[in-house]
Design brief:
Length: 181
């Protein structure tokens, strides 16, 4: 293998020439920290064994990586809630039963998520479920600004959907959010 020949072992490997440590290009958060350093760099690597993900100074399996990413998403929702506090917006209500998202120019919720309590639950069965729906008349044709607003509103909706999920888990399995799957 010449010095500039691409890797013939892994198609994702960014290393060239003769090498035994295979590594993909890094991916990192688009926003550097206050010192200008990269934040949350990650890449795929392999040496003498199966490929793994280098992330958070750990060598992770795909399942471990997904778990860490889910934990970070939850943390980022908490960080975003700090901005809501500063802006004077109401925090997420852990006991809420309904959240919705509308699109510019619609008459109803484009996406609604609501915990529905069952009137006659079966013994050992669920006492509630999470209904996700769209209201009639909620379809919209959006321009760029409308699409941008919908994207921002959907990003704000996701923590609320997670809060509804956690509320449902508390209703159906008991315990605190940290104790539930």
């Amino acid at each position: 293998m010449t010095d500039n020949q691409t890797c013939t072992v892994y198609p994702w490997c960014a290393e060239t020439g003769n090498h035994t440590m295979h590594a993909s290009a890094y991916t990192e958060a688009p926003t550097p920290d206050g010192y200008g350093d990269r934040v949350l760099p990650a890449n795929v690597m392999a040496e003498d064994n199966a490929p793994y993900i280098g992330f958070l100074d750990l060598d992770l399996t795909p399942a471990q990586t997904r778990t860490r990413v889910a934990e970070l998403r939850q943390h980022l929702d908490t960080v975003a809630a700090l901005a809501d506090i500063v802006d004077g917006q109401a925090p997420l209500d852990p006991a809420a039963d309904l959240y919705t998202v509308t699109a510019p120019g619609t008459d109803g919720a484009l996406i609604g998520a609501e915990i529905l309590h069952l009137d006659d639950p079966k013994p050992g069965g669920p006492i509630a479920h999470l209904a996700v729906y769209s209201e009639q008349g909620a379809d919209a044709d959006l321009d760029v600004a409308g699409a941008d607003k919908l994207i921002a509103d959907l990003e704000n909706f996701l923590p609320r959907l997670r809060a509804l999920r956690n509320h449902l888990a508390q209703l159906t399995t008991g315990g605190t959010p940290a104790e539930r799957p």
